[in-house]
Amino acid sequence: MKQLLCIWLRNWPIQRLLSRPLNESLRELQRADLAADQPTDPIGKTSTPLHAAPERAVNPTQGLPILIWQSDPRRGRLVVACCRRAAALGVRLGMPIAQATELANSKSGVTAWITQHDPLLDDLAIRAVAEILQQHITPMVAIEPLDAKPWAGQVLHQSDSLLLDLSGVVHLFGDLNQVIQSIHGQLRPLGLRPKIAIAHGVAAAWAHAHFNPQEDFIDDATALNALPVQALRIAPETVHTLSRLGVRQIGDLLRLPRSGLSSRLGKPLVKRIAQVLGETDEPLSIHHADAEHVSSMELEYPTDDQCILMHRLEHLVDEIIASLAASQRGALRLACRLDLTDHSQLDFNIGLFAPTLNKKHLVCLIGACVETRRIPANVTRITLSVSLSGSLRTSQSGLFDNDEDDLLGDRPSGDQSLPRFIDAISGRLGRDAVLGVRRTQDPLPEKAFQLYSLTDHRGRQNMQRRLKQRSSTNEPEPSTDRANSDVPRHSFRPPRVTDAGRRPMVLLPHPLPLTAVTVATKQKPPGNHPPIQLPVQSLPVHSLPVAFRLGGRVHRIVRHRGPERIETAWWSGPTIRRDYYQVETDSGRRWWIFRTLGDCTWSLHGHFG
To answer: In terms of Cα–Cα distance, which of 224, 209, 213, 278 is closest to 254?
Structure first.
């Protein structure tokens, strides 16, 4: 009989945060990504900044209450994970972070450790754990699959369990108990505390691992009836309906006819019942680690001659290209290591905008890095590896094309000129000097966009995931096509961000304070014209003045449009409320100014052309 093993890493964000080995591996991963952009000292060794680590591991001996929060679009910042001590102090999941912080600090007498939840680091860490188990237990390891919406009792919509197919490997350990002990032996050095269950199917193993009170469980058909219905991985609404009917355990549910359950509660519930009973098989999506593409060469004699080094690097690039071409992938990040005679190493990384297998382009980028680095000693060994790769973009080749780049799927056509230009200037100026702009959902104009490195693919993937999560919670914008819209022609339409002229062409990085003119002032215009007598400001303080003073000159307002109220959400910190105006001065310039509600101060934030 097929046997499946489920490993549940309870409170995974906390366990990952407390695991020093996992944090060290993530730190090394991000340090390798940032190494190419860090300044070098006079002998060419890179200096590692303090922010290179994704986050420092918490020392468990400190005994601090740990709180992890996540922003909810409706309820604000909520606690999504907490340690045992914080839970003992009364902190509960779903509690506002401000209330949880005050509760933990007041009862413990120490300052709680508070951090924002990072699903990307959690995902990278659980993939690393899966690869360790693939090396020492079984190659058939899968990460827990998720549905489109969270299951009942699931606070974070992320994977925190691993599924192992034990077919053909149990005899290598002796019995199932030895398999469980071997898994504990692999995870204990990482500081992880897993909860393990073995059953005849994926659904049963998952149910026992999450809801069976026994820590290490081996398949028992009778124990399934005592588990709650939440163990079936069903929607919260279905659990609520079953609870109202008095059905709280799987045994109670199995006594009901499935035909009635299907018509009243939907087919997903019947499907889950069949899966947990082993009547239908649930396929596993086996985790496959990224293939390692590494090529190394020992030099005949130590040297620091750049011509010799580049000649050897070209041979290594040929081997790397051949390895990548076999899997139809291109290089996105290259790592080069030079072993020196003084037993030190010189490392540099090269990020690319798009996957490529073009030898000339890769050699040019590597050569630019070698030329800009000072090699303090002779080189004895060269190692070239691909730390990140991507699928190549396929294109239709011509009938008489014999170019090698065409055969590799990397034709230097017009769509390749921009990626190669970005790669070239990133290699010369650094990754942080070549940035892209992406719009965010923050209402404040100075925070309405976000800069990102065009060659930092991990950062781009993380940003795209977060933007996707945000966009999934927002309502879709109505269609702007008047012909296909049912809205009447003369109906009111609120302003949008894409409206022409709604935002200034130049946005100041920091608003400049303005002084509102409230008394009679003489202003001398350019030329030989007589001074202009400005009228006394008779409007209330909270209204738009007739003039402002900026840079020693008084600017009189002749036209204005507004106000437009912009304010931040209450859960994002101290509330900021502003009234924005588009004003035209007597000199013909158009400004974008705002008044801060509360202190009634005025500031210049941009100008239109």
So the answer is: 224
CA distances from 49 to 33, 46, 53, 577 (A): 12, 10, 9, 37
> By three-state DSSP, how is residue 17 classified?
helix
Cα separation, 100 vs 111, whole angstroms: 12
* Contact between residue 12 and residue 192 where contact means Cβ atoms under 8 Å apart: no
* Amino acid letter, 188: R
> Do strands 113-116 and 66-72 pair parallel, antiparallel, or not at all (unpaired)?
parallel
Nearest to 320 by CA among 311, 329, 308: 329
What pLDDT score does 23 carry?
A: 80
Centre a 10 Å sphere on the Cβ of residue 37 and count the other Cβ atoms it contains: 20
d(CA 96, CA 11): 18
- Residue corresponding to tokens 């080189």: 379
How, if at all, do strands 590-596 and 577-585 pair? antiparallel
- Tokens (6 digits) for 560: 């204005």
- The 3 state secondary structure assigned to 82-132 is ECHHHHHCCCCCCCEHHHHHHHHHHHHCCCCEEEECCHHHHHHHHHHHHHH
Q: How far apart are CA 272 and CA 202, in angstroms?
A: 11
- Rounded to an integer, the average pLDDT of 182-186 is 94
Out of 329-333, 390-394, 508-512, 596-600, pick the least confident.
390-394
- Encode pLDDT of 449-460 as tens digits: 888 777 766 555
Tokens of 182: 């071997």
For the record, the structure tokens of 227 come out as 């588990």
Contact 224, 253 (CB under 8 A): no
Looking up tokens 């990504």 gives: 33
What DSSP letter does each residue of 167-206 carry, written as one string?
Answer: TTTHHHHSSHHHHHHHHHHHHGGGT---EEEEESSHHHHH
C-alpha–C-alpha distance, residues 54 and 123, integer Å? 13
Identity of the amino acid at 190:
L
What H or E segment, with its residue span, contains residue 416? helix 414-429
Q: Alpha carbon of 47 to those of 52, 275, 362, 433: distances in Å?
A: 10, 54, 25, 18
Least confident of 174-183, 428-437, 585-594: 428-437
- Distance between CA atoms of residues 6 and 179, nearest Å: 12
Strand partners, 275: none
CA 18, chain centre distance (Å): 20
Rounded-to-integer distance, Cα 367 and Cα 306, Å: 9
**Radius of gyration over alpha carbons of the chain, in Å?**
31
Task: Report pTM.
Answer: 0.58
- Secondary-structure percent of the chain, ordered helix, strand, coil, rounded to 5: 35, 25, 40
606 Cβ contact list (under 8 Å, min separation 6)? 445, 503, 504, 505, 506, 507, 508, 591, 592
For residue 462, is pLDDT > 80?
no
What the block records as the tokens of 269 is 């519930």
